[in-house]
Specification:
- This protein is of the alpha/beta class.
- The protein folds into 3 domains: 54 residues, 434 Repressor (Amino-terminal Domain); 129 residues, Response regulator (Rossmann fold, 3-Layer(aba) Sandwich); 130 residues, Rossmann fold (3-Layer(aba) Sandwich), CATH 3.40.50.
- It has 14 helices and 12 strands.
- A 6-stranded parallel beta sheet has the order 2-1-3-4-5-11, with helices on both faces.
Length: 343
């Protein structure tokens, strides 16, 4: 009986009750819970209202939201591979950022759904989602989404002019090459991700440019590619490292770097004494494998939070939040997998 009373009590909590408990007006509660507090309610007061609502067990009724606003308070996050650990970090951070503004997040895997664009357009036009953050999109998909462009926030779009959030790939690759050249590496290999995404193409282009600036060449014989499948990536890395030519290897992803470790062991090579290895993303695994991996860190929380803020600003017509492209700097985390090249 007590459980039934408790549930009934939670259902009876209204925005007026939250307002009274928080010592604010009902309109303030409405602004906060609808995600429209930006520029109208101080951050301290917004957090106080959210904490009060949470303690009371209050959450806006979805049906009431649709009646008031004409759309459910849900945003979608479309990513190319939900199994990749990095996108798990992005999802968690986006959930936190969205929840603080009264929204929920729906995940879409674009690589396993050929009709995802049409489904997304249908959901937005059917008012099931308010808008969508689209990560690492293709030019064709970006053009197809043009019909609902005002409700889309692109991250690392193929056409960089469409990106709301982009990464400083050139700066990151500059740091990688400078680090390796500074360790006297002149024969640097490249294990590329075998996916048709602009971000991977830009990484290799920046890599070649940086080598050129140091008077070095990107020898095609020192480059290979692979999917993130462990066996496929290990085989590709084994073939490349088996040439015994490169003294350092850059990998498009930490998962590929782990495969390179595996390949080196199978060849009787030591990381980093025989070959230095650098990854990209800085997922948790980079600090678990031995030796700990030198890698480019993408601040997933920063990217996701900025994307949510810009999308919601865009949906509410806030030009200051949605205008222009925000370029996020990346950091090279130097760990034990890179050492000076042997003479």
């Amino acid at each position: 009986m007590a459980r039934q009373v408790s549930r009934a009590s939670k259902r009876s909590i209204t925005s007026f009750a939250v307002a009274e408990a928080a010592g604010v007006s009902q309109s303030t509660v409405s602004l906060v819970m609808s995600g429209k507090a930006e520029g109208r309610v101080s951050e301290a007061k917004r957090q106080h209202v959210l904490e009060t609502a949470s303690k009371l067990g209050y959450s806006p009724n979805a049906s009431a939201q649709i009646l008031r606003t004409g759309v459910l308070k849900v945003i979608a996050l479309a990513v190319p591979n939900v199994q990749q650990p990095f996108f798990g970090q992005v999802l968690v951070a986006a959930e936190v950022a969205a929840r603080s503004r009264g929204y929920s997040v729906l995940l879409i895997d674009t690589s396993n759904d050929a009709e995802w664009v049409e489904r997304l357009i249908g959901m937005i036009r059917g008012r099931l989602v308010a808008g969508c953050i689209v990560y690492a999109s293709d030019d064709a998909d970006e053009r197809r989404l043009g019909a609902i462009r005002d409700r889309i926030l692109f991250v690392e779009a193929e056409n960089s002019r469409r990106s709301g959030i982009d990464l400083d790939i050139a700066g990151a690759m500059g740091a990688v090459v400078s680090h390796l050249v500074g360790l006297n590496h002149t024969r640097i290999g490249y294990l590329a991700a075998r996916y048709p995404k602009a971000t991977f193409r830009r990484r290799y282009e920046a890599f070649r440019d940086q080598l050129s600036q140091h008077g070095l060449d990107a020898d095609p014989a020192w480059r290979t590619d692979a999917t993130f499948d462990l066996e496929t990536a290990t085989a590709a890395a084994t073939e490349l490292l088996g040439q015994r030519q490169v003294t350092a290897l850059f990998c498009d992803d930490d998962l590929l770097a782990a495969a390179a470790y595996r390949a080196a062991r199978s060849l009787g090579l030591s990381v980093p004494q025989d070959v230095s290895v650098v990854g990209f993303n800085d997922i948790e695994m980079a600090r678990i494998i031995h030796p700990e991996l030198t890698t480019v860190a993408i601040p997933a929380e920063t990217v996701a939070t900025l994307a949510v803020e810009k999308l919601l600003g865009q949906l509410s017509g806030g030009r200051s939040l949605s205008a222009g492209t925000r370029v996020v700097p990346l950091t090279l985390q130097v760990r034990a997998s890179t050492v000076p090249a042997r003479s």
